[in-house]
Amino acid sequence: THEIPRDLPRTGIKSVVTFADLIFEKHPKYFPRIDRWSYRWRYRWSAAHADAIVAISAQTRDDLVELYHIDPARIAIVPPARNPIFAANATDGDRATIRSKYGLPNEFLLSVGTLEPRKNQQILIGALQRARKGGLPPLVLVGRDGGSHDFLEKLSRGLGLRDRVIFLSHVETADLPALMQSATLFLYPSQIEGFGMPIVEALSAGTPVVASAGGCFVEAGGPGSRYAGAGDVDAWAAAITDLVADSQARDRMRGAGIVYARQFDGDRVAARLLGVYDAVMTKRALP
């Protein structure tokens, strides 16, 4: 929750507080005013009074330094750990079963995330329309409605893509690895995140990723993924079209992604976190 108890400093007990993001500060339009006030009052105080801060990405660290004027020496970067189920290979039968369960074709483009404005799924629908002549597979949007479902559905109909955009409001977590492994590409066009764990999950599943350029997305996606500006529909259309047509490029991305995602294994992340705790307890510099 980005905070420590208010009475903790006077007890002498050491404290480490974890920050996922400061999205409410950088994009206040997505948050009610009372929420912004509450978050700022609690989180700024906790950042100032904790002995150390764990930021889940370099982007979050930089935001803490810029917006809350935190000394970067007090911040360690430790990413979230991936769920190991995404690294387990699904059989051909498993993938066929999942496609049948959710009524999906053999080939499709996949995006996972709450259907809300900052997740920016509309850029994918626009890219699908721009690249229509390229014969792209349909787009599958997985996620609960956070306020954008009706808009996205209306947009897809208006662009003549009613049968090319598939909405799945609920997919069981246990089904996601096989679903990701069935996808031709995984697409993550979000405008801002604290980290972007679905990117790591897709890489773990061996699915090539196209994500938004800049910020934390490159941290999550690594050098083997492709990136496009969150507002550049032509760049998204070009990236998707190129990769759908180039199976060798997808194979290279698949291999690079699997290797890159291993750094988010739970034991590796736990070791980094323990290093932070040890440094705080012994008054050494943070790793």
What attributes does this structure have?
alpha/beta, 287 residues, 12 helices, globular, six-stranded parallel sheet
What percentage of amino acids are in beta strands?
5-15%
Largest sheet: 6 strands, parallel
- Backbone CA Rg: 20 Å
Distance between the termini: 23 Å
Categorize the overall geometry: globular
- Quote the average pLDDT: 95
Amount of helix: 40-55%
H/E element string?
EHHEHEHEHEHEHEHEHEHHH
Total beta-strand segments: 9
List segments where confidence is low: pLDDT < 50 over at least 5 consecutive residues. Answer: none
Helix-strand category? alpha/beta
Number of helices: 12
Tell me the strand order in the biggest sheet.
6-5-4-7-8-9
Description of the molecule:
It is a single chain. This protein is α/β, with parallel strands linked by helices. 44% of the residues lie in helices and 12% in strands. The chain has a six-stranded parallel beta sheet with strand order 6-5-4-7-8-9, sandwiched between helices. Strands 1-2-3 form a three-stranded parallel beta sheet. α8 crosses α11. The radius of gyration is 20 Å and the shape is globular.
Detail the topology: elements first, then pairings:
Blueprint: E1 16-19, H1 23-26, H2 33-49, E2 52-55, H3 58-68, E3 75-77, H4 92-101, E4 109-112, H5 122-130, E5 139-142, H6 149-158, E6 165-168, H7 176-182, E7 185-188, H8 197-204, E8 209-212, H9 217-221, E9 226-228, H10 233-245, H11 247-261, H12 266-282
Parallel strand pairs: 1-2, 2-3, 4-5, 4-7, 5-6, 7-8, 8-9
